[in-house]
Amino acid sequence: MPLLEKELMRCEQCGTLLESVTAASGCLNCLLGGGLNEPGVSSRRFQHYEVCVRDDGITLDQLGRGAMGITYRALDLNLDSPVALKVISAAYSDRPEARERFRREARTAAQLRHPNVASVFHFGETSDGECFYAMELVHGETLEVHVRRDGPLNVSSALDVAEQVCRALVVAESHGLVHRDLKPSNLMVVPHELSGTDSLLVKVIDFGLAKAVVALEDHASHPGFSGTPEFASPEQFDSNKASLDARSDIYSLGATLWYLLCGKAPFASDVVMQLRDHQRQLPLEDLTAANVPASVANLLCSMLATDPSARPQSARELLNSLRACRRVVGVEPRRRASPCSP
């Protein structure tokens, strides 16, 4: 069945995309892990890192679970310091070429040193062939969790978040790195008392992994979609994923900004073909209902253009546009969103 005709189903445990023929009980990664409370790994030790357990002394301290693997709270035994340890799914890391590809992508991601990027500082492989990487442990919560609990952000806070993420994209672009799965659940929010600032401090996680997964799937007999459809650019649904550039992340950031302002993504569907059809016409009534200023609505329209050439052409260009937009929002009269179209 062609990709565009597949019905989108998700694993109930981790949210991973499933084909309709997949067992409804969950994805392979979760089934192998035995459920939410099982480790899905053969040992708590990963070289000089040890996965932490929760207060019950048995359950591993899991921070997140997704299509690419499971993230745990762990301890660097050499430095006696906490880290986030991502153990890559066996579905990807059980082949030598896959392990080498993840190593290369982790090496590239480790070059990103920026306040708005969760730093990657180690990639390793156990004697059993399990791949993992250690990264900065961000004490906070994802923007998805934050919005679900507290509701949409005000315009000023949402633009501040978008600008922080965009600054991270500027640095990534200078390294030729495209995130490919930018979304609220990959943006960590640091609490005010820990960030030392009066505004939300945001850190982007999982740079590099999405590209490695795309490359592996492209070499498989059943190439699939990598990313999150609601926040993916139209070009991510095409077969030539290798041509993705910073404009794809700009689209995803636009969908994320929409989510922050409206409490939901601009498009949603259980079928990829329907989702692509929806992407051709933005639901501007959502922006109107959220009382989004016209200048912000116009910026969103440009970021969410279906044609990449109609979007801001670089992260730097977008950063300048975001800053200009923030300057006028405070004095701009509130009016209905402009009838723009991507």
Describe this structure in words.
With 342 residues, this protein is of the alpha+beta class. It folds into two domains: 3-135, Phosphorylase Kinase, domain 1 (2-Layer Sandwich); 141-329, Transferase(Phosphotransferase) domain 1 (Transferase(Phosphotransferase), domain 1), CATH 1.10.510.10. The chain is 35% helix and 15% strand. The protein is built from twelve helices and twelve strands. It has helices at 28-33, 90-93, 96-109, 143-150, 155-174, 192-195, 209-218, 246-262, 272-278, 284-289, 294-303, 315-329, and strands at residues 9-10, 17-18, 45-46, 49-51, 62-66, 69-76, 81-88, 120-125, 131-135, 141-142, 187-190, 201-204. Strands 3, 4, 5, 6, 7, 8 and 9 form a seven-stranded antiparallel sheet that branches. Strands 10-11-12 form a three-stranded antiparallel sheet. Helix 3 (96-109) packs antiparallel against helix 7 and helix 5 packs antiparallel against helix 12 (315-329).
CATH homolog superfamily of the largest domain = Transferase(Phosphotransferase) domain 1
Structural class: alpha+beta
Strand element count: 12
With helices defined by DSSP (H or I, 4 residues minimum), what is the helix count?
12
- Please report the distance between the alpha carbons of the first and last residues: 29 Å
Query: How can the largest sheet be summarized?
Result: 7 strands, antiparallel
The CATH architecture designation of the largest domain is: Orthogonal Bundle
Mean pLDDT: 78
Percent helix: 25-40%
Write a compact overview of the structure shown.
The protein has helices spanning 28-33, 90-93, 96-109, 143-150, 155-174, 192-195, 209-218, 246-262, 272-278, 284-289, 294-303, 315-329, and strands at 9-10, 17-18, 45-46, 49-51, 62-66, 69-76, 81-88, 120-125, 131-135, 141-142, 187-190, 201-204.
